[in-house]
Design brief:
Helix content is 38%, strand content 15%. By secondary structure, it is α/β, with parallel strands linked by helices. It starts with a strand and ends with a helix. The protein has helices at residues 17-30, 40-60, 74-85, 100-110, 132-135, 158-168, 254-270, 272-295, 323-334, 346-352, 370-383, and strands spanning 4-5, 68-71, 91-95, 115-119, 140-146, 171-175, 194-198, 210-214, 299-302, 313-318, 336-337, 339-341, 359-363. The strands form three sheets. Strands 2-8-7-6-5-3-4 form a seven-stranded mixed beta sheet, with helices on both faces. The chain has a four-stranded antiparallel beta sheet with strand order 9-10-13-12. A two-stranded parallel ribbon has the order 1-11. It has eleven helices and 13 strands. Strand 3, helix 4 and strand 4 (115-119) form a beta-alpha-beta unit. The chain has two domains: 4-14 and 272-383, Aspartate Aminotransferase, domain 1; 17-270, Aspartate Aminotransferase, domain 2, CATH 3.40.640.10. 49% of the residues are buried.
């Protein structure tokens, strides 16, 4: 049975061929490290890493490519930024739709004297923007939020939130895991002080590579979470005070960066507008196909019913069929691969009214087709009776 992959919100698949080729070429023909090797291959490789920083800075409207820091993933990036910035007695705001990549660090920090409050959201996951200013306290230092919900794809209004942060002297930290590579982000225009990203989702790179980009004013406010060898200023045991070495100790994931370099070139050639148009076109086809099933009481679409203000992530609840059973049947009877459960975002489900049942999530990507969508609609029609 041919498989249909509709779990791009977890990790994009397949990757562009150029990504696999670049990683294979590195692993079989280069293999060097950077900042450690005193030979030409290592110097050339440093050029690829530098160019990757430049492409990320350009994509996200950063101020300087030296402020692009590589990590394993967006979770590590958020941990570095949040735990390095927040001190006991500080207060931070987040949205009610956050992934545990934000919430678990905040809950952990709350045990150390950091306060947080959640900005309310609607039953479709939209941010209640008017509530923010009334929630700001004297000790509020920042707002952190996802750009796009991993559960229902709803977008948060980054520019408007960034303007509120600028007005009140707050730092703005953004989790772009579900939007980077699809929806344009401009750090300057949106007043973002720290943008955290992961490479393996819509940036189409390998797993195990991510990072964050800092505005110049954030650098010295964040205490490094990790420290160790950087290959620079090796005469001292102090952490480097310059970027990106301040936050990049240890051996880097060079295969991941090389793969990300190739995927960023692929995205630039295709264009964000074309990528978004394709994914949202599939999303509209899927939603339009589900509405008759919802009207017949067979399933419930969670979140927005249209394609404005969202990404290509759709969650549903199957009525009369347990969601886990529905996901199992989609896979084993129809070859359709989805995700089921609470999606590492329990409070988002509480906001949407789907806790603790959870949902079946369909997430469309670059390489999905209209035939994939039609197959999913047909399968749900048969499963839901």
């Amino acid at each position: 049975m041919e498989k249909i992959y509709l779990d791009n919100g977890a990790t994009s698949f397949p990757k562009p061929r150029e990504v696999a080729d670049a990683v294979y070429e590195y692993m079989t023909s280069i293999g060097a490290n950077i900042n450690r090797g005193g030979y030409q291959v290592a110097y050339d490789l440093e050029g690829t890493v530098f160019e990757t920083r430049e492409m990320l800075m350009e994509m996200f409207g950063g101020s300087d490519c030296k402020n692009v820091v590589f990590t394993k993933n967006v979770t590590e990036s958020l941990n570095v930024v949040l735990k390095g910035l927040l001190k006991p007695g500080d207060h931070i705001l987040c949205s009610s739709m956050e992934h545990n990549a934000v919430m678990r660090p905040l809950v952990q920090l709350a045990k150390r004297g950091v306060e947080f409050d959640r900005i309310p959201g609607t039953e479709c996951g939209e941010l209640v923007l008017d509530a923010i200013e009334g929630m700001i306290k004297e000790n509020t230092v920042a707002i952190v939020m996802t750009h796009a919900s991993n559960l229902v794809g709803t977008l948060n209004p980054l520019k408007e939130v960034g303007e509120i942060c600028q007005k009140h002297g707050l730092k703005f930290i953004v989790d772009s895991a579900q939007s980077a590579g699809i929806i344009p982000i401009d750090m300057k225009e949106m007043h973002i002080d720290a943008l955290c990203f992961t490479g393996h989702k819509s940036l189409l790179g390998p797993q195990g590579i991510g990072g964050f980009i800092l505005d110049e004013g954030m650098i010295n406010l964040i205490d490094p979470l990790l420290s160790g060898g950087t290959g620079s200023i090796s005469h001292t045991e102090e952490i480097p005070d310059f970027m990106p070495d301040r936050f990049e100790p240890g051996t880097m994931n060079i295969p991941g960066i090389v793969g990300l370099h190739a995927s960023l070139k692929w995205i630039k050639e295709k264009g964000l507008d074309a990528i978004a148009a394709h994914e949202l076109g599939l999303t509209k086809r899927f939603l339009d196909g589900l509405i008759p099933l919802e009207e017949a009481g067979k399933l419930k679409i969670i979140g927005l019913k249209g394609i404005e203000g969202r990404t290509g992530v759709v969650s549903i609840q199957t009525l009369g069929v347990d969601c886990a059973d529905a996901a199992f049947r989609l896979d084993f009877e129809y070859g359709i691969e989805t995700r089921v459960g609470l999606h590492c975002a329990p409070n988002a489900h509480k906001t949407l009214g789907t806790y603790p049942t959870g949902t079946v999530r369909f997430s469309f990507g670059n390489f999905n087709t209209e035939a994939d969508v039609d197959a999913a609609i047909k399968a749900l029609t048969e499963i839901c009776g």
